[in-house]
Specification:
By secondary structure, the protein is of the alpha/beta class. The chain has 8 helices and 7 strands. Strands 3-2-1-4-5-6-7 form a 7-stranded parallel sheet, with helices on both faces. Helix 1 links the parallel strand 1 and strand 2. Helix 3 crosses helix 4 and helix 4 packs parallel to helix 5. The termini are far apart. About 45% of the residues are buried. It holds the Pfam family adh_short_C2. One of its GO terms (molecular function) is oxidoreductase activity, acting on the CH-OH group of donors, NAD or NADP as acceptor. This is Gluconate 5-dehydrogenase. It comes from Roseovarius litoreus.
Length: about 250
C-alpha cells in the first residue's frame, strides 16, 4: 500500500522551472519549493527572479538566461546544476504569444514563438535527461494550452507551437520513460497572468471566457497546485505522455 504522505513529497528533489519570473512559472517554482524541492528558477529578467528567490528562501536559486538561445543551453544546464545538483524535475513554463493574425504573421514572430514555446523545452530537456537517466527517475512537465486543441484569433503561431507541445510530450515519453523519466504536459485554461493580461483587462471578454467553461469561472493560481504537483511527484509514477487540461472543462464542450 502506498505511503500517502510520500505521494506528493518532493523532499530531496531538485527542480528547474523556466519562466519563473512571473505568472504560472513563478507560481510553479514557489509551489515546488513548498513541496520540499530545491528549485532553480530560470528567466531572462534577473531582477524579477531575485525577488522570487528572496520571497522563497533557502530552497531557491536563480539563473538569468534566455532559454530560446539554443547554442547556450549546455552552459545553462551547468548553471542550473550548480546550486543544488542536477535537476530531477524540469518544468517548461516559459512562453510567448505574439497574437499576430494569420495575414500579419512575420517570420521573426513565427520563429521567436516556435523557438521559445517548442524548441526550448526539447533542447533543454535533452541537456538535463542524462543526469535523470543516471538516477533512474525524472519528471518533465511541458506547458500546453487551450490552443493545443482549439484555434483562437491571432493565435496561429502560438497554436502551432502548443499543438507541437502535445506531440513533443508523447515523443519524449516514448524516448525517455523506459529510463524512469515521465514526460507530461499541463494545459492551463483562462488564468490571469502577464501573458493573458490583454484578455483579463477586458471584463466583458473575461466574463465571456468564464461562461465557455463547464465550471463557469476563470482559473485562479491555486487551481494549478494539485495538477502540477501531481505531475512532478511520485504520485504520477505510471502517468506519462499525457496532456492534462486544467481549464474548467473548456475543452470538454
Amino acid at each position: 500500500m502506498a505511503d500517502l504522505s510520500a505521494l506528493f513529497d518532493l523532499t530531496g528533489k531538485v527542480a528547474c522551472v523556466t519562466g519563473a519570473s512571473s505568472g504560472l512559472g513563478r507560481h510553479a517554482a514557489s509551489l515546488l519549493a513548498r513541496a520540499g524541492a530545491q528549485v532553480v528558477g530560470v528567466a531572462r529578467r534577473a531582477e524579477a527572479l531575485a525577488e522570487w528567490q528572496a520571497e522563497t528562501g533557502p530552497r531557491a536559486a536563480c539563473v538569468a538566461h534566455d532559454v530560446a538561445d539554443r547554442d547556450s543551453l549546455p552552459d545553462l544546464a551547468r548553471a542550473v546544476a550548480a546550486p543544488f545538483g542536477a535537476p530531477d524535475i524540469v518544468v517548461h513554463a516559459a512562453g510567448i504569444n505574439t497574437r499576430q493574425r494569420a495575414d500579419d504573421v512575420t517570420p521573426e514572430g513565427w520563429d521567436t514563438t516556435i523557438a521559445l514555446n517548442l524548441s526550448a523545452p526539447f533542447f533543454l530537456s535533452q541537456q538535463l535527461v542524462p543526469a535523470m537517466k543516471a538516477k533512474g527517475w525524472g519528471r518533465i512537465v511541458n506547458f500546453a494550452s487551450l490552443q493545443t486543441f482549439r484555434a483562437f484569433p491571432g493565435g496561429i503561431a502560438y497554436g502551432a507551437s502548443k499543438a507541437g507541445v502535445a506531440q513533443l510530450t508523447r515523443a519524449m515519453a516514448e524516448a525517455w520513460s523506459p529510463h524512469g523519466i515521465t514526460a507530461n504536459a499541463i494545459g492551463p485554461g483562462f488564468f490571469p497572468t502577464e501573458l493573458t493580461a490583454p484578455v483579463f483587462a477586458d471584463p466583458e471578454l473575461a466574463a465571456r471566457n468564464a461562461a465557455t467553461t463547464c465550471i463557469g469561472r476563470n482559473g485562479t493560481m491555486a487551481d494549478m497546485d494539485g495538477p502540477l504537483l501531481f505531475l512532478c511527484a511520485p504520485a504520477s509514477d505510471y502517468v506519462t505522455g499525457q496532456v492534462l487540461m486544467v481549464d474548467g472543462g473548456f475543452t470538454a464542450k
